[in-house]
Every structure is written in structure tokens, then in C-alpha cells.
């Protein structure tokens, strides 16, 4: 008999409710909160539950994939077709952003499940080591503070090395990496180290691309982004990025930077000084659930009320978990939220197709994507491109999931063997 999960608690709006939420967090509750999200997928099979109807053509399961160190593991969701192709495409691997988790891709799993059924190719979503529900080992960088190249290399290897171990454990030859924000940055770093293991890169609002931080506004991460309302039938599809799109977005970022409130300037200052936002939430003790609730209810306005409540519960549990991979931020990003070793200066070595994707209200600077595509073209990589997602901010895959799904399927279909 399939167990019934209790509904998630309401988003706290008072100190008392926040105190109750703080006491409820823990590793067990983290697993419950993730499962509550994943059970929204009709083809998800919880542990001990019967398989979903064969009519869906796929089955999704969660597992902890062990790495070389017996104390290290990566939390993994696999969506596998019941009938796998004799010539499957390199499977897409979804990689979340800073301090997030695979549950953030909830809105994209149905479309990717349909693609898995039709293509006979599995789909994976993975929590980075030290984030989400993966193992939380100590994060250490031993390089001297002034040795930027060594600091960046060691910080990147914490994630890149564990992803490579995961690939080997899964028996995958090549992958299509779909990364968001810091996950996109790390996807590029992985490809630079293991070029023969990647067939395509899809970078959703990538962090660390440009070498000019003047128009990036990290505090906008807490804002509600214009998005397609739930159930909306208004078409709002992706489009190739134009010069006009880039100018408009950069102008909006410039205005937002000038109009930042005092509290948002504090947020930006702490970010630039290398503080982990999760340190701040943990240090507030009982107010943590309330702070996370303010973030989740404002930032994910495109979700339904029930989805927002479940997402809040999920974010709260992975945020209050032991600090680990989050401490990479001061080694990878310099003050100003600009990468210490910007991808725009490294991207030319990438030989596989690269797709840059930005929301039309993004806080990531799209000029970095435009310059990167130009450099890729100059290096002979003519299959790289840049796209704009309407009605979306930094979390493009959630703000306008239909548009991102369409773009993902279009690019994934190009990886299917003829």
C-alpha cells in the first residue's frame, strides 16, 4: 500500500509559526519534502510503492548514488523509459543552481518525461555534492588567497570531480548538461575538464559568464519576476536573442541597480563579501522559516498556492541543512558577483554546441552570453546560440516552464542519433 504523506505546513507568517517550522526540519523531513514535490509527477514511483501505469511509458525514481568516498553520495532523480532505444541519445542531466536542489525543476519533469518515452532515452536530475539532499562533506580550499587560479580550480573540482564519479557509477558515456545559474557555470567547468563526456550544453541564466559586473543586480533574486500565470493559455515562447533584447534587459538592470532599497543594498553587500545567504538564515534561528517563506512566496509567484507551499517546505529543509558546498561562492565569485575567472574568457575551448538562455527580466548580464557566442563562432563552433525567454526572470525554467520546455526538447532532439 502506498503511504500517504501529510500536507506541508502553511508558509509561516508569524514568529510562532516560524518557531514551529524551525523545530520540524531535519534530514528525514528533507526527504519527505522532496517526495511531496516529486509525487506530483504521475509517473513517480516512491520507495515501496507499486510502479506507475505502463501507459506513461516512463518511471521516475529517487536514489542516493554512492561515490568513491563511502561517505559521499549524490541525490539523483532518474526518469527512465520502459522501452529504451537501441541507440539512445546522450541523456540530459539537469543541474540546479547555488543552494537549490533538483526539486526546482518540478515544472519541467513532465515534458522531459514525455521526451524520454518518445526518444527511449533516460533523463536525470542531480543534486550537487554539498547541496540539496546530497552528502554535505566539509568544503575546503587549501590554495593561498592571492592564488586565484588555484582557488577557483579547487572550488570547481569539489563539484566537477563528484559529477565525473557519478557519471562513471551510472555507466554513461556522454551527457547533455542542462545547468541553471551556478549549475550552468559548473557545467562549463566540467566540460572544459572532460570534453569527451559532453555532447551539448544548455545554460539557463548562467552565472559567472561576463567580466563586467556593472549591470548584474544579485538582490533581484528575491524579487517576484513577471511570469506566465498558472493555467495561462497566452503563448509566450522562446526567441533568438536580438540586440534590442540585450539593450532592453541591460537598461532594466541599470535602473534596478540605481533604485535598490537599503535592505537590498545590504543583501548585495553581504553577497559581495562572500557571505552565504544560508548562513544568514541559519543564524536567525527561529526566524529562518519566516525568512524563507518571504522568499519563496515572492520569488515563485508563477506556482500555484499548493506548489508554493510545498516548495517553501522543500527550500526550508535544504537551506537549514549543514553548510557545505555553499561556501564555494567566495572562491568562485569576486566582489560584484563577477566570476574570478569569467567563462567568457574560457568558453572558446568548448567544441560542443552551447545554448545560452536568459529571461527577459533576468538579473544575469546577457552581454556575457552574447560575447561568448561570438567567441564560440570565431573559434569555429557555429552550433552555439542565445535565446530569450519572455515573462521570466533568473529562474527561467520555473517562471515560464512551457517556453523552456519547448527549447529543451528542440535542442535534445538534435542529440538523437540518426
UniProtKB/TrEMBL annotation:
Q: Which Gene3D superfamilies match?
A: alpha/beta hydrolase (3.40.50.1820)
Concerning InterPro entries, the annotation shows: AB_hydrolase_1, AB_hydrolase_fold
AB hydrolase-1 domain boundaries: 93-211
Which biological process, per GO, is one annotated for this protein?
lipid homeostasis
Q: Which GO terms describe its cellular component?
A: mitochondrial inner membrane
State the residue spans of region: Disordered: 209-257
Which regions are flagged for Low complexity bias? 224-240
Q: Write down what this protein is called.
A: Alpha/beta-hydrolase
The record's section on Pfam families has: Abhydrolase_1
Entry keyword set: Hydrolase
Q: What is stated as this protein's family in its record? A: Belongs to the peptidase S33 family. ABHD4/ABHD5 subfamily.
Is the keyword Electron transport assigned to this protein?
Answer: no
Q: Source species, please?
A: Sistotremastrum niveocremeum HHB9708
Q: Where is the composition biased (Basic and acidic residues)?
A: 245-257
A GO molecular function for this record?
phospholipase A2 activity
